[in-house]
Specification:
Helix content is about 65%, strand content about 0%. The chain has six helices and no strands.
């Protein structure tokens, strides 16, 4: 449970993308990634991996306050018509 006036650590989209890339392509362990980027716990990286597997890079973006725009992009990304155009 959060403590009053507690500051939460946030990570940029670039760090999230790079961490997931290092795990998938370079086969880095969660421990090595957390030490390299100074991430507080390994479970954070595991959640990023799960999210990126489910919905790709759009899922790693911060979604607070912009759900409508991102959901449209995700729907477009999932649709087969969009994949054919690219």
């Amino acid at each position: 449970m959060a403590i009053k006036e507690q500051k939460f650590k946030t990570y940029s989209n670039e760090i999230k993308k790079e961490a997931t890339r290092l795990h998938v392509e370079e086969r880095w362990t969660y421990r090595r990634i957390t030490e390299h980027f100074k991430i507080q716990d390994q479970s954070r990286v595991k959640k990023w991996m799960k999210s990126s597997r489910e919905l790709g890079v759009f899922r790693l973006m911060d979604q607070r306050g912009r759900r409508k725009n991102i959901s449209i992009k995700i729907d477009m990304f999932k649709s087969s018509d969009w994949k054919m155009k690219c």
